Plakophilin 1
Amino acid sequence: MSAGTMKETSRTLSTRNSGGRYMSTSGVWEEQINASTWPKSPNGIKPSKSDPALAPPFSPATGPSMRIKGQMAQGQSTFQTRTNRHSVSSGTNGNAITSSQSRIVRMPSTQSQNEGKMGTMKMENKSMMNIPDLTLKEAVEFLSSSEESYQQWGATFIQHTTYTDESAKSEVFQLGGIPTLVTLLRSGNPQVCQVAAGALRNLAFKNQNNKLEVQRCGGIAKALQLLKETDSTETQKQITGLLWNLSSANELKQELTATALPALTQHVVVPYTSLSDTGPSSYIDPSVFNCATGCLRNLSSGKDGQRQTMRSCPGLIDSLMSYMKSCVAEENPDDSSLENCACILHNLSYKLEQESSGSFSNYNPSRDAQPEKSPTIGCFSPKSSKAQKTFSFDTVDASPPSGVKWLSHPNAIDTYLSLLESSENKATLEACCGALQNLTATKGNASDAVSQILVSKSRDLSQFGPLLKPSNPKLQNTALSLLGNMSRTSSVQGTMAKQILPQLGELLEGGPSKFGNSDESIAAACNTVVRLMSANSDTSKKVITNAVIQSLTDLSENKKFTKGSNAASLLLYSIWQDKNLQSAMKKIGLTKSAFINNNITQVVSRLEGL
């Protein structure tokens, strides 16, 4: 069997606001992944969609005599099947056959902006043995036959036809084939169950009407019951692929969260991540895990209550984190299931402190933490007169994490940093970076603690350099937002300034094109420089050159970038207000007029009034 690729949308949640919060949602996948970028708003969720791949129809048992399509080539081995009540095993001349599943490509963090690829599996001619030359009307009629062989013929024909012909999906819907296929999921013949699931999987792929019809007929409940009963890997692939496709429909997420979430966690995710030598019954195929996590990825981009339900699902977060850590240990950072896991955890970290008050209970300010005050350097100075508490690492709870506490634990941060350094999968990179952005989004002890841990664990912040490259604007935007969040923590500003300011200066010197012409990215870079430049005057003097000032001046006058022009104006104003930097600017021949003019004064006055 060969895997084809088809695309639908997948979603990841990311949120950004003026306070530096970024929420990434990964969630809606079908057999293929597609992520669309939604307008960003404070605490907004970005949907991304993806559906799993369509599976190839399973070759039916010998049926009634009729004209055949796709006859086997001479010398091709015969296909044999053996069945019991809840299992189907297949072989060619006695050798086990494992069908492949197409890979999933993450949408941005899925990352919600990319299309993932989870292809639908199609049958090659050599695999399409004994498929009768039917019309779809005849195939649908076969589904209601009292003969199981006819039921299998009909479902197999529908599965194949809907893979190759998009219009066939609507025709089967009009002919009323979906209710009968749903009924066949409870057939006493495991092969009939399998091909019915495969047909429904293809019918639901990128077809909203068919998704809703499957649900209306009770298809979700029947599919989950079959998943719990079967020990056939092929049937498990079809069912989890069907659930993945269904999960891209927002209308179905509530039911799927209530029913499919616990079932997939208990019967696929937990067993797969805790494999043992207990026998064949514990075996879960990697492609089944991939489809299951694709479904959960879509669900994680749902409403707040659904996200909270996922956080409290027993064993889910522990298993996802366990799989991610195993991929890091095995040096397999570009695995497609790892991508799904990262996107789920990215979404579950969105609004984490707000929605799960106990999730940051590991972080407590030390008893001897003293508020430290800095002289006011200006209204927008990074060292404002607001008191800041010093966080002590000694207060981090070192006990093994479980459940929701995994999301903000230092061990999770370690895993994210390892993947940022080793992975080449854009979706995985965006998800890991987005999760860290979410964890540093609020203003308080928790975000300060995570920022300090990030700087401590990342040593020279080398992981962040490649993320700032303009070749991936979405990842760059997320990384800039994360660095902006971290730069609010006074205790790390000195280290960040030394490592990050040179890179930000290079980007600003290059102008809007270095930021993919992203207004938000330009603003994030300027605001971060404002916070960091006073923390290390020596580095700032080297970074802020004539070329950088000229670029900032151009940006401040470019009203195409509303946020960016305001941030550039504020940065110019702040540079001149810093006495050390003002002196350095004068030495390179710049005067006050380069930093303070009518336009900049108006912008600063307006911002002060907010």
